[in-house]
Specification:
The protein contains 14 helices and 14 strands. The protein is an alpha/beta fold.
C-alpha cells in the first residue's frame, strides 16, 4: 500500500504536530476520505497467490524485505492500515526507526522484555516504577529463569520515614549495579539482557541520567551489549526524547498523554530497527497488537497532543508554584523542581524540555491526613492513571504500589503521606481552589 510519507516541503523539515494531520495516509486510497477510515477487518485479500507468498516470507522472516518494499497486508494480528499509519506517526515524535503499538502499556513492556531476554539472563531495572512493571520484573520473570535486579536511590529531605540510600545520586548507584549484574549474568551462563529505566519515576518524579546509564552499558565487556529501555510515559513525547540521550528503545503507555481522553488502553515500543524486528516477531506470535478502532482513536488524539500537553503542563507548573510552602505540605515532587537536588536539576536541564503535568505532594501526617484531603476534593477525580484532559489524584501507597513491601516503600520514597496529581486542562484557578479547600481538611 503506497502512503504519503513526505516529511518536508522543499528544504524545510515539517514539525511533528504538522505531520500528525496527514503523514502516512493517502486519501486517494480511501475514496478521498480526509481522515483514515477504520479498517475493521480480520483478514485481507491477496491480489495473487504470489503476493501472499511474498507477504508471508517477510512477515515470518524467511527473507529480508527489499529497501522500498512495504509489508503487505495479511491479517490484523500482524498488520492493519490503521496501525501502520499510527506507527508511522508515533515514530516521528521520537525520531525512531520503527514504532509498534500494543493492546496496553504492559503488553508493550512484557512483549519487549520477552523478545530481548532468555533463561539465565539478567535484567536491571530502576525503582520505583509503575506497579505492573515491578510485578513483571519481581515476580513473573524469575519464574522464567530471568534474574532481575532493582536499583533505588531516594533521599527525600523532609519525610515521616527514614529512607535507605544506595548512593548520593541514582546514576552512580545504577552504574555499579549494571557492572555487578553483568558479572552475575556471566557466572550464570547468560547475559545482561537489558537495563530498564523509568524516568521520571512513578510517583516520585526522580530522574535517571540516561547518558550516564548509556555510558555504563557501553563500558561493559560483553559481546552483545544490553539494550537500554526507557519508559517515557510521564514526559513523552514532547518533554523528553530518550533516543537522543543513548536509549535503544522507548516505551509508552499510550493510554496516558498520547490517548489523552481516558477512553482507551494501548501501549507502544519504538526505537532501533534491529531490536524492533525482534519485538515485532514476539508481538506477532503473542498477539499483543492493539485493535483498529483503538488505533483510529489514537490517530485522532495525536492531532491535539501538543496542545493538550502544553496546556496541562502550564496548569501543573502554576499549581506547583502556588503550592510550594503551603503549611500542610512537606514537599512538592516535580521533575527537576526547586526542591530537588542540584544533581537532579542538572539532569533535568540536560535531558528534559519540560516537567510535564504529573507531580506528587508529601503531606504533613500520614494515611489518615492524605485520605481526608483526597475525600474532600471536588474537581480532581480520585482515580489511577494520568495524562487525560481531566485532573486526577491518587494515593500510590494504597493503590498502584500497594504490593510493595513496607521496606520497598521506604527505600523508594512512597510514604502513606504521598499523593500524586495528574493535572488536566481545566481552569487553573478552579483547580487551585479545589486543592486549597481539600488541604484545609487535613
Amino acid at each position: 500500500m503506497s502512503r504519503h510519507r513526505s516529511r518536508t516541503i522543499g528544504d524545510r523539515s515539517l514539525a511533528p504536530e504538522t505531520l500528525m494531520m496527514g503523514y502516512g495516509y493517502d486519501p486517494a486510497l480511501s475514496e478521498g476520505s480526509i481522515k483514515a477510515p477504520i479498517f475493521q477487518t480480520s483478514t485481507f485479500v491477496f491480489r495473487s497467490a504470489e503476493d501472499g507468498k511474498r507477504f508471508f516470507e517477510v512477515a515470518y522472516g524467511l527473507r529480508e524485505k527489499d529497501p522500498e518494499e512495504a509489508l503487505g497486508l495479511i491479517y490484523s494480528r500482524i498488520n492493519n492500515p490503521n496501525l501502520e499509519i499510527l506507527e508511522d506517526r508515533l515514530a516521528v515524535w521520537d525520531g525512531a526507526d520503527k514504532a509498534l503499538v500494543f493492546s496496553s502499556g504492559m503488553a508493550a513492556i512484557s512483549t519487549t522484555i520477552l523478545a530481548l531476554s532468555r533463561p539465565n539472563d539478567v535484567v536491571v531495572y530502576t525503582a520505583p516504577a509503575y506497579g505492573g512493571t515491578e510485578y513483571l520484573f519481581d515476580r513473573i520473570l524469575p519464574r522464567m529463569g530471568v534474574t532481575t535486579v532493582s536499583v533505588a536511590d531516594v533521599i527525600p529531605p523532609r519525610t515521616n520515614f527514614t529512607p535507605i540510600s544506595l548512593a548520593e545520586e541514582p546514576g552512580a548507584a545504577l552504574a555499579d549495579v549494571i557492572e555487578n549484574a553483568a558479572y552475575l549474568a556471566k557466572r550464570k551462563g547468560g547475559r545482561l539482557a537489558a537495563v530498564y529505566v523509568e524516568t521520571p519515576a512513578n510517583p516520585t518524579n526522580k530522574l535517571i541520567d540516561l547518558e550516564a546509564t548509556s555510558a555504563a552499558i557501553k563500558a561493559l565487556e560483553q559481546a552483545e551489549a544490553p539494550a537500554l529501555l526507557v519508559d517515557n510515559t510521564f514526559l513523552g513525547p514532547l518533554w523528553q526524547n530518550p533516543l537522543q540521550h543513548g536509549a535503544d528503545l522507548v516505551l509508552y503507555s499510550l493510554t496516558k498523554y498520547v490517548g489523552g481522553h481516558s477512553d482507551l488502553i494501548a501501549g507502544a515500543c519504538m526505537g532501533r530497527a534491529d531490536l524492533m524486528a525482534r519485538v515485532a516477531e514476539m508481538r506477532t506470535i503473542c498477539g499483543t497488537i492493539t485493535d483498529p478502532h483503538t488505533a483510529w482513536l489514537l490517530m485522532r488524539s495525536l492531532e491535539t497532543l501538543h496542545i493538550r500537553m502544553e496546556r496541562s503542563q502550564s496548569n501543573a507548573m502554576e499549581l506547583v508554584r502556588r503550592l510550594r510552602g503551603h503549611p500542610k505540605i512537606l514537599e512538592v515532587l516535580d521533575a527537576g523542581g526547586a526542591e530537588s537536588s542540584p544533581a537532579q536539576q542538572a539532569i533535568f536541564a540536560r535531558q528534559c524540555t519540560g516537567a510535564g503535568s504529573t507531580f506528587s505532594l508529601r503531606l504533613k501526617g500520614g494515611e489518615a491526613e492524605a485520605f481526608r484531603m483526597l475525600n474532600a476534593l471536588q474537581l480532581f477525580k480520585l482515580a489511577v492513571s494520568l495524562g487525560g484532559t481531566e485532573s486526577l489524584v491518587s494515593h500510590p501507597s494504597s493503590t498502584t504500589h500497594s504490593d510493595y513491601s513496607p521496606e520497598a516503600k521506604i527505600q523508594c520514597g512512597i510514604g502513606d503521606n504521598l499523593v500524586r496529581l495528574s493535572v488536566g486542562i481545566e481552569n487553573v484557578d478552579d483547580l487551585y481552589a479545589d486543592l486549597v479547600q481539600a488541604l484545609e481538611a487535613i
